[in-house]
Amino acid sequence: MDVQHLCTVLQSCLSHNTDEIKAAESILSQHETQKGQVQNLLRVAVEGTLDPALRQSAAIYFKRLVERRWEPKDKEKEGGGLFEEDKAEVRNNIVQAVVRSPPLIQKQFVEVLRSIIHADFPQNWPGLKDTIVQSVHSKDEAEVYGGLVALRWVARKFEFRQEDKEPLYDILNVTQPKICEFMSSLATADNSSPGAAELLKINCKIIWALTFSVIPRGLLEQGNFSTLMQALLVLVTKDVPVDQMPQDPDEQETWCWWKAKKWVLHLTIRFFKYHGKVDASKEENKAFSQMYIDKVMLPMLEAHMQLLSKMMQLPRPNKRILTILLQYMQHAVTHAGAFKVLKDHAKLMLINVALPLMYFSQEDAELFTTDPQEFVRKGFDILEDIYSTKTAAVNFTYELCKNKGKLVLADYVQHLGGIMTEHNAALQAGNVPNDIARKMDGALLGIGAIDDILKRKKSYKHNMEGLLLEFVVPCFGSTHAHLRARACWVAGEYADLKMKDGKGTGPTFGMLLEKVVALMRDPELPVRIDSVVALRHFIDALAKLDDLKPILPQLLEECFKLMNEVDNDDMVATLETIVEKFGEEIAPYAEGLAMNLVKAFFKCMETTNEDEDEEDMGALAAVGCLRAINTLLDSVNSMPQIYPKLEEICFPILEKMLKEDALDIIEELMSMMSYFVYFGGDLSPRMWSLLPRLQEAVTTWAADFFEEMLVPLETFVVKGNEIFLTCKNPDYLTCMNQMIEHVVSNVDSELEVVPAPQLMEIVLQNCKGRVDECVAPYLLLSATKLQNVERSKLMVALINVFANAFYYNPVLTLQVMKQQGSLQTVMSKWFEMIFAAKPDEKWKYFKRMQDKKVSILGLTALISIPDEVLTPEIRDGMSQILNGIMKLLIALKEQEEAAGDESSDDFDPESDSEEEEEEEEEDHDDDTIASKESEYIKRLHREARSLFGLVGSSDSDDDFTDEEDEETPVAKIDAFKTFADALGMVEKTNPARAQALMAGVDQSVQAALRGMVEYAASRPVPELNGVANGH
After folding, report:
1. Average pLDDT in the 158-185 region?
2. Less Cβ crowding at N or C end of the chain, within 10 Å?
3. Burial code of 206-227, b = ≥16 C-beta within 10 A, e = fewer?
4. CA distance linking residue 728 with residue 239, whole number of Å
């Protein structure tokens, strides 16, 4: 498409006719990968003689084209990428495009530059270095800006890397002094133009990216360090051109000079927090930290205090600037050297700066009245807290009162008391003006923010009950709705206060609880929300539930009403607390609770999908609903008769959400499913219908979450054994095996693979004699995976598959391993692991008794295998097998005796933490090894093993003990008797092999063997039950 035709099509995109726009966009889409198209879009966008709207349209399509086609993830699916000649031409001209374009178009080019640098630098764009160096040293401001933008994206690309940063350092070696020089000139120049603000902001962003982890070498040079720090000192206190500030309040918050000032403060607080203490800084940064402390830290703190004073004098100070300044002061409170400067100003700062920022503002009042749902959302949104000036004031107050209480606490509490007394006087006079009510709101926030400090200190804790009665209780009936809400919040914060009659009891506690409950029906939504959230604290603190039982239906009804109005995770948490506290007594309300929670869940998910602004709150509330459902199921798990109805109510969640967008809630979904399969009697057709869904999930998007699915999958095998094995439409065994194969073959993290061999073990143990067709694929998967395993936990799990296979059918297993060519390799690895030891002589592998027993049973099956199927490898290695069995038996005996002596249910002298063992092998990040199981899942693992004899999974042997294997199919088998019986049978039926076995071991092993046979004979006969057969 030539330029003229392109302009015509782009002009159609600006039409008011929808059909014309769609047709034009279709043409552009068809020509995306045509040679020269991306160049022509760039030409149109930079051509100054064309209509600005047309140019902007070209710039937008240019950006979209680069984002889609520059580095397509799937060329076949997405239709291919751009021609290399086109890409080279764009690289040659994009920086100049940034330089030559007006702001709206420039914004698009800046994003394109980011994308290309991320994809191509340095390998495919080595010339960018020269372009940046030349631009940064130019005398033209626009050229400088273009070079700085490019440098910023280069710095961002390498920001979080610890190594391979040389391409960045090559540029910095030439440009670092210039960047510091720019900062200095911007600090001293009398230039108030928006362009100067943009240059300052982009310089700060570059320095921000450069200093994330390791201070670059250039800033360790005395000249560069001094230039930068002196510039920052000046820039902190330098006045912004307020005469140019927009009149509109919203535009003021995003004004270019406030943004520039914000980025200056981002740098200064980072340097203070991470370099204000030499001992706390990284080794490679200690020299920088020492220079910072010696020359800059205290003058910088004084500069920030000066700026804070200036900001408080403005009629409308910028909120982000105030927030960062308060965060700076909060850090200064905990820094001994810095607090010496702050000390004399601390009281005034607390009372004259922090406290007024906690008052209920005009902006709060407008939002409370015009959009109460948004008021609630902002009040409970964690992200809002990060940027909230009020939250910053609260945090500063708390740190100051906690760390320097002797200095400020008495005066602060006295000042708050004065505000509250003023409010009560106005209340008694019959009229509380807005300004007094708003100050009272701030005073209550202030007293609630330091509740744990006041509740600990003897001089205050005994007076807090009186304070609540005198000042808080009257606010429950205030005509100012925000005070009623604040009274609920403060009461909740002090619900666990030890009063005259004790904690969670007495007339004062009862009165506050009654007031909170009454406001659950307040006409104002924020008040109702705060009352429900506060109720959770009272229920947690309540000494006896008797007083609450009569009004339980009312509490639940009001909670459900609110859940229909707003998505709020804290509110759902109150419902969860009610369910948890009342336990089985919640049973009469269980169905209603479940119905309302399911309804609320789908409402939250709908909100999340429809409104991006509500996404976080809706998602959190949705998770809260699932958590509350699981708490409900846990509370009534001893009442299986109500489970079928609860399953029917909750099933739509499982049915709908087991798809790709369920990643964030997979733990909760699997917890819910686990409760139903464990405690709901026979597995229902509904639950069985989910097994193919799990298979689809694992093989498409959820392979990394296989461990979360392990509990219900185990239950299908064990509890539903007959259906699992006989049903062919769908074929549940095939579904299970497809999941196992996919996880072993496709999951990278070795710890996340472990559940797959554990599931093979479950199938082999619980389906003995009925899954011969599984043996070959299980052994092939395990042998293949074993070749490249590093983690000891996965090694043991894989070897256990072979041990279980030998126990399942030694002849079949031997034949399969011989055919697959894995026999020699696997047996060698197995015995290497049996005889391996850590430096302290403890077992390196097979640390649990269960692991030892499984190996004993598998190897014992080999010594009695018929001669006609015995392979040369096994025949020649019989003595080694006997040695291995004896080592395992001796260790197992010692562990059993130690466990009995210790009289600890999960005592195991060899069960060092698997996490500790893994740390010895290699470093790893917490996210990889951290257990992903919720408390529900961990508890269900224990419950399931007790009920059905399931084998579980964990990252640590501390979480998965031998007690949890007491009901597995092999648990009731005595390994000692099994070995002794097998040896006795060999002696009777195959004397030649018995003689060969004894001849192949030394006298000490022979003596130990005889002793072990005698020990086996002395052991009681184990009681067998149906669990071993999966029934």
Report:
1. 93
2. C
3. bbbbbbeeebbebbeeeebbeb
4. 78
